[in-house]
Amino acid sequence: LLQEVEAWAMSDYARALAQGATLSAEQRSAVAAKLHEYTGLPVDYILKADLRVNGPEFEHTLQLDTGTTTGRLDSRFSGPTMDPLSKAPDYDPMIAAFGSAYVSVFNDYVRKDLKYDSDRQFHLFADIKEWEFRHTVPGGAGGEQQQQTNVMPDLAMAMKLNPGLHVMLNGGYFDIGTPFYAAIYEMQHLTIPASLQQNIEYAFYNSGHMVYTHEDALKEMHTKVADFIRRTSSH
């Protein structure tokens, strides 16, 4: 099924989006029907969205008829919708389920093991205004900077500087934050010689953004990463 959807996304769907306003009503309906088949989103919603539905819209709308929001970092999680009239979800049910555990474990660890004693609170997510996301592109003319960081040019340069560098990409099938095929697409568009593509390996698991939250996936990832390190450490 995944191979079928990937092929459709890169062919019929991509061509339909590229046609823009010239896409016929018949073709538009056919694409919307196929998107409904693959995603479960209502056809009328897909048509209103002009065949373009982003992640947050998908999470909010998929189970809206039951008053349920779909998880972003792991779409197997769901929770009550905060505002049915919103365009996007107000929270991530996956974080709601796991967040407190991470905060508790971290606070316990830094105080009991690291002996760090402070009244400052650790927040799983914080609204920090000082983050600097601008990034200088390697080899960019005149020190070209990106407003939103994209390190794919950095990876491409590293692989060209060191042709013996091997890369392993691991991810979860149920991750909407960093979708699995988007990662493959990015890797396949690296500005590297075709011969270096063989240095890239992929492994995906029945888990979400944090693969390790699913015990079976954690064990599988450990095995595959350990094997990758052993096989490539001599290069």
3D structure, described in words:
This protein has helices at residues 2-19, 25-39, 43-48, 55-61, 93-112, 152-161, 180-188, 215-232; strands at 68-70, 78-80, 135-136, 145-146, 167-172, 200-205. The longest helix is centred in the middle third of the chain and has 20 residues, at 93-112. The chain is mainly alpha-helical. The strands form 3 sheets. The chain has a two-stranded antiparallel sheet with strand order 1-2. Strands 3-4 form a two-stranded antiparallel sheet. The chain contains 8 helices and 6 strands. The two termini are 36 Å apart. Helix 1 runs antiparallel to helix 2. A hairpin with a 7-residue loop joins strand 1 (68-70) and strand 2 (78-80).
Which key features would you list for this structure?
mainly alpha; 8 helices; 6 strands; two-stranded antiparallel ribbon; 235 residues
